[in-house]
Structure formats: structure tokens, C-alpha cells
Automatic annotation (TrEMBL):
Keyword Transcription in annotation: no
Protein name as catalogued: GLPGLI family protein
Domain of life of the organism encoding this protein: Bacteria
Keyword Transferase: no
Domain Peptide-N-glycosidase F N-terminal intervals: 220-398
InterPro entries: Cu2_ascorb_mOase-like_C, GLPGLI, PHM/PNGase_F_dom_sf, PngaseF_C, PngaseF_N, PngaseF_N_sf
GO molecular function, one term: oxidoreductase activity, acting on paired donors, with incorporation or reduction of molecular oxygen, reduced ascorbate as one donor, and incorporation of one atom of oxygen
Keywords assigned by UniProt, alphabetized: Disulfide bond
Amino acid sequence: MLFYFWSDSKTKSNMKKILFAFLAFCLITQSFGQKNPKAIKVTYQRSYNGKLVENPDPLLLYASKDLSLTTTDKILQQKAELPYEQTFIDFNTKTISQWAQLKNKSILTNDTEALGKQKFEFSNETKKILNYVCKKATTSVNSNKIEIWYTNDLGLKGGPAALGQDLGLVLETIRNGNSVVTASKIEILKTVPYVLKIPAVQTVDQLTYKDLLWKSRFINIPVFNKEEIHFISDAKSNDSILRFASGTVIVRKVKFPEIKKGSAIFADVTQQSNGDAYDRTGSVFMIPMDKKTSFLDGLKNGANTLPVYENGNGKKYQGVAATNDYTPLLELMRFFTPFGVKHFNYLQLKNKVWQDSVFYRQDISLLQPKLSNQEIYIGMFIGNYDAGGHKASLNISIHEGEDNNTKADYILPLFNTLNVMEMAGQEYGTMFDNEKGIELSFEVPEGYKNFKLSYTTTGHGGWENGDEFLQKKNTIYIDGKEVFGFTPWRTDCGSYRLSNPASGNFGNGLSSSDLSRSNWCPGTTTNPNLIDLGNLSPGKHTIRVSIPMGKPEGTSSSAWNVSGFLIGER
């Protein structure tokens, strides 16, 4: 502490002048330091529709005159979940560098053009944010209106995203008027922090970067890769893939990791014709092995070794219904091949560009209890009698941490009348030619509630007067009481014309692939119906499916492929 003593008025006056000059010098120095700091740290907060969004991992910006870094607190502390990204901008070279930490490596990609291509409309509007005067610029990104509020008061550039960083220091962005990112704190740094340095890691092109980053966000399990599913008498298995029913069924044992509840699970199939010109029924399924007899036994030893279902119409249906000693196939996806995609693309039509393949994708998250931490047999079937047949790939992806509101703790396969061993003598699903249809008993265990039935149905055969082209009501009964009834029908089949180069054309200008059908189209999946059954009491129950199936006409007959499994919650 300094003490000053004045002996006379002249000395006192001089000291006042000195003190005033000192204070003025301090203010000028402070102002200069604020105007041109070596580096800054900015913390941002988010709000939506006027409400602050709580975020335990705040967005951070570090900036010097040469470089900026957009990151988060958890990333800097190495506590963020993998994968994560950071964005660097080199203002000298106008380069945006994206740096990603994947589960097993780091990658970097550089873009020397994007920053210079940003276009804005400028306004005379100004406002103060954290006591800094900000100017307004507006742009559009993917049909989203973006307002940028930036300041030049600090002489540095940066922002919460790459957009607008070359304008100045972005303190606020507003997307579509309701999603806002605003600076909540600005810290002046005495030195350039160590984090303002682009890491020396593997550099890849932008498409490779995006692909590697995307794939690192989920678990992908490749099951089949362009496997032939065709009809040949000497179809041979190998150590990896088992082939049955003259090569029309392929099976592989797959190990699944532990899957968290709430994760999203998808089955993806890519299919091409390898010689077969027709639309065919396809199915992806798992083979339950929890009972004395399994469908795998039938594949190995013949369809007639499977438990038989009879309903009094004189036919024997192998392996279609659950019994005390047998669980039928659990269907993951029902799909239908189009007419000859890829192989028959040489059949040209004016202004038609045929697809190279068909991609089918279905959400199978409900099956998490049957997949998590299990080693199971996964199979695929495409019915055909062609030596070239089809080529198909199957991948199952697991997207952990997604809250998809699926609640399934208990899965019980009940029936599946799709004869995947069609080419090995398994009977078609014609049991619906009488009112009983398919009927069976099942047991509900203690401790479950809110039961649902996943029910997939498609009608087939009979040509123009068959059930494939006629609307037929499906009715489901539980304990003798109707719980669901609907008429499965698809009227959008013409939407998939470009996947059907070999589809037959009629005199009236229509193509076969255009025709409406019983819940399927050539080149599509068929979605299951999720039927609410309520709280079934523990113990035995019965289920029956009834469909007024049409009668045979000459050598042509109808059939219905229906599959169903019970879902329960704890």
C-alpha cells in the first residue's frame, strides 16, 4: 500500500495530475488488451423455444488469431463417449479440419473450400451480447434459416460451428427462429492454450472420413455377403454357411454381443437376380433351439421329421406350430424379390432406368431379448427353381443408446406357415381352407403384462382368381374371442416399377408388378402388425388365425404365409 503526503497545495495539485495520468494509462492498456487478446475461451449454451436446454457437457470455443477449436468440456477431459469430433479452422489457409476419435483410432479430414463458399446476407441490425456489439448475417442451410450474430470487438474469429467463423467471433446462432446457441461466458487468455494445435493423425478424404465416422457409431454384424440362393441338386455347405433345400435356404451361426435395452436393431438385405426372372417370397429368420426338436433338425433330416400340425382337412403341415417339444421359426423380415432386377436390366424400355439391386431394411428392435448375448442360427430363404437364382447379403446393425420406446422382455414364437423348405417338400400354408385355420395352445408365464402379438401375413397363388389378388379378411382369436381383424392389401406396387425389368406387360398398359396384392409388392418388405392383447393371465391360452382362403382352380391353388410371436413386458 502506498501513502502520499502533501505539504502544500502545489505539490497536491501535481500529485493529482500524476494519479489521473496513471489511471488513464491503465484504462487504455486494459482496453487494448481486451481488443487484441492472444486467445479466448467461449462457453455456449443452448435453448429451444425460449427454454434453456440443460447440458452437462457445454460447447466450448478456443480461438487465437491463427486458429480456432470447437469442442466440448468432456472431450477435453477425455470423458466423452466414442466416437466424438472436434473442428479446427485455420484462418490463414481458410481450411476447416475435422478431427474424430473413433473406438480404435483417430482420423482427420481437411476442407479448403467450404469456408470460402459460405454466403450471407448482411443486415444493419445490431445488438449486444455479453456487452459486445454484434452484427447480424443470415444464410440458409438445407432449407433451414440461420441467423449469425458476430462481433469484431475482440479482433478474433471463431464460433460454435464452422458456419460464419470467417466473419468474426460468433456469439449467437439462431436456426429457424427457435433453436438458439448463445455465448454465456467469454474468458480472455494470457497465452495460447495447448489445445489450439491440430493433431498429427491419419488424414483421409472427406467421404472416407464421413463413412468411417458413421460406421463407428453402431455395431454391424455381417451375416451373408452376396451369397447365391438358388436351386441346384448338389448345394454344398461349408464351415461357415449351411445350405439346405437344394440351396434355397442358407443358415449361419452368429454371435451377438450384449445389447442394451432401448437399442435400435435393424436387419438389412440387399438382393439381385442371378438368373431368376420371377417375384419370389423371401424370409430372414432365426432358428430357436430351446426345445427338444428344432427346425434345424428338419433342415438336416427332412421336413417330415418335424412335428406335424393337422386341422382336419387331410393334410399334414410340418413344423408350423409351437408344441411342448418344438418352437417354430422366428421371422425377422418378410421380403419379396422383384422381377429380375440386375440380371434382366438389358430388357430396356424408353425413359426407364432400372435399379441395380433392391435394398430392404426393417426394424427388429423388439427381438432384443432373443438376440442379446446369444449365439444363434440365422437363416435366409428365397423360393425359386432357377440354377442362377438370386444373390443376397444380410447385415444386422445395433445402434446402442437409442430410446426407441420398444418394450419387450419376453418373446414366444407361436406359428409360422411360410414353407421355407418348399423345395424340400414342406407343405404350403393351405390350412386356411377350413374355418379352424391354424390353432394352438400356449403358456403365459408369471410376471409379465401388456402382451402384444407381432403378426405378419401375405396371400399367395391362384393367379388372377387366387388370394394373391383378392382381398381376404384375417381374423385372430384369443381363447375363442376375436381380438383383431383386418384385410391385408397393398395398392402401391406400381411405385416399384424400376426394380422390375422382367415384369410381364399386359394389353391394357399395366405391368404385372403394378398390380395390387395381398399385403406385398414385388421388391418390398411386408411390415408386421403389432396387436395389443392386454394383460393375459398366467397359464394356458389358445390362439387361432382364420382366413377365408379360396378353393383350388385346376392346378392353381392359394396359400397364406402367416407368422406370429408373443411379446410381453415385465
